[in-house]
Amino acid sequence: MKKVNPVRVIAVTSGKGGVGKTNLSVNLGMALCEMGKRVALLDADMGLANVDVLLGMYPQFNLSHVLNGEKTLDEIILHGPSGLLVIPASSGLQRMSDLSNIEQAAIVHAFSEINHDLDVMIVDTAAGISPSVVNFARACQEIIIVVCDEPTSLTDAYAFIKLLNRDYGLNRFHVLTNMVQTVQHGQLLFQKLTRVTDRYLDVSLDFVGAIPFDEYLRKAVQKQNPVIASYPRSKASLAIKAAAQQINRWPIKNQAGGYLEFFVERMIQYGTQEHVA
Prior knowledge:
Elements: E1 8-13, H1 21-34, E2 39-44, H2 51-54, H3 63-67, H4 73-76, E3 78-79, E4 85-87, H5 101-112, E5 120-125, H6 131-139, E6 142-147, H7 151-168, E7 172-180, H8 183-200, E8 204-212, H9 215-222, H10 227-230, H11 235-248, H12 260-276
Parallel strand pairs: 1-5, 1-6, 2-4, 2-5, 6-7, 7-8
Antiparallel strand pairs: 3-4
């Protein structure tokens, strides 16, 4: 019988696009791999999937091929740098409510039978607050909200937190500030957000870290290689590694939601609820 391994399932989301969310997802995943963790990155941006582009990968198969029975999940997984496993996006997951009972059972089985013992799965969501993004976030154990120093970034982050809190009862979020001038600048952004959430919402925000604006990160994107691989001593790389260390210290919730099959079952459940509503 296959050993059931508790997995830390983390959504990385933003509300607003253009804040560097996917880049952080890739680099955080690699940083955790370099710390000895077994990490998978699920590209959950069904409209504009670009995890593979950032890594210079060109997948031939994706989750749609798992759903129709052509491939197993293990057969579509891409092997990235530092041992990072990448699960390519598929429009087959865009609306969970449209899956037949057989398809639902197939995808749950695929995740539960994955032949890689994992410690962490990072779910890189799309930007915005569409039902698909909300459902992915709700299904994960932990939610990291990425913000940058733009009024719309903070406004959209607050709107997303408010939606998840008031409509779905979620009350614990992590915040990672990106493209900031200094750590203090990142902390000020975090404090701006907490001042509003403390006043209007019953939520707890945790500061994960501040990633500085770094020209080496742009160069790494052009090379289609993660910054912590291309420029491991750059300011951005060091900050990402520090954030990964903090994430690694989070307690693992040893519950049903910590297993990959239950993550997918939640996705189906929430998607069906949205469809019925």
